[in-house]
Structures are given as structure tokens and as C-alpha cells.
Amino acid sequence: MSSSHSAPKPPLKHIAFIMDGNGRWAKQRQLARTEGHKEGVKRIFDVAKRAFEHWNIPYITLYAFSTENWSRPKYEIDVIFRLLRGWLKRKKSTLLENKIRFRTIGDLSKLPKTAQEILDETLRETADFNEHTLTVALNYGAREEVLRAIRELSSSEREHLTWEALSKHLYTADIPDPDLIVRTSGEQRLSNFLLLQAAYSEFYFTPTYWPDFGADALDEAVENYLRRTRRFGNIEPCSDNA
Question: What is the pTM of this model?
């Protein structure tokens, strides 16, 4: 006879988003790819606000620009960073008012100086907030992150290497691993995103393009996650008489 009490569901602390489909959203509407990026930027705070306020999820991470994205046309890259600067200028006051910590992962040194300046300013001014954290991955690649972490290891850490020691040198050392990774646009791959941190993450793939992914779509993803049972490598809970 099976137990009448279901196992308690672990809290949802961290959702990471692979924001995919901006270009295809634009193409579908016979628009320039950059128009898709403009529309996609509008969804960022819609989704973050819903996650923070309605679901009380403390950590949100957004995959905005990968190390591989430098191969895109220069004009498209310029638009992406211009949109980033504009978004931060408009939303910095909102971040401050709502006490949202803004942080980044990735190598910012290769970004345009104007983007670096406003990023540094926003990082500094929101650094003391701890209730909600919005992380944006910029010039980020998981393989590069691992190589960087290995280079930073001390000789004693290398000699007795553990996951705990290595993880302290990852960009994400101060935030929990993602419980749920959401990818929009129908693609089903990680694309060099949080490869080590995703070891026990749940995945949610939706055909919806990122510019169309709003509060309702987020609700659907979270509700889908809450119906799952996470076992972290353990066996399925057995019946009382097993």
C-alpha cells in the first residue's frame, strides 16, 4: 500500500533562461533581426518581475550574449550592446527601488567600454541587496568558465581537488545552481551555458520565441516544474511495504 503523504517539493530558488528566438521572431514578421532583439529586451523585466513578486524566486539568470555570439554581424552586436545600455539606464532606478541585486557572469573585459561603464555602475550600486538577484550572462561560455576556474586554483587546491574547491572559482560561486533551466524557441540544448551548474537542473523547452515569452508563459514553466519529483540521483520513493 503506497503512502498517502507525498514527499515535500524542494523550493524553487533559481531559474536560468536561455533567451532564444529573437531573430526567428523577427523573420516570421518580415522584420530585421535587430527588431527581434529590441522586442526581446522588453520581456526581461516582465519575466523577472513575475518570478520575483509572484513566485518569490530569489535568483534569475539570463543568457544574453555568449562567447560564440561574437561571430554574428558587427551591426547586430552593436545593436545588442546599445540595447543593453539603454535597458540599464531605464531600469537601474527600478532595480534600486525594488532592492534587486544586479550581477553578471562572463568576461566583461571584451565588451564595449560604454557597456562596461554602466554595468560597473549598476553592479556597484546594487551590490548590497540580497533578497532578489538578477544575473545576466555576457560574453559567457561554460567551457571558458571552467578553464578560468582551473587556472585560478592554488597548488594546494590542485593537489586535493574537490568539486567544492573548483566551484569557488566559478562565476556563480555566490549563487545556488539553477533548479530549472528554461529555453525558448523550441531548441533543446544548453549551448555552452552553465554546463557544470546544470548537473541536476530540470529542463523546460518551449516553442515560444523569447519576445513572446511573458508572465503567463513563465507561470506555465514554473507549474510544470512543480509537478515534477526531483531525485538528485536517488531511486524513486518506494511504497510503505516495499
Answer: 0.89
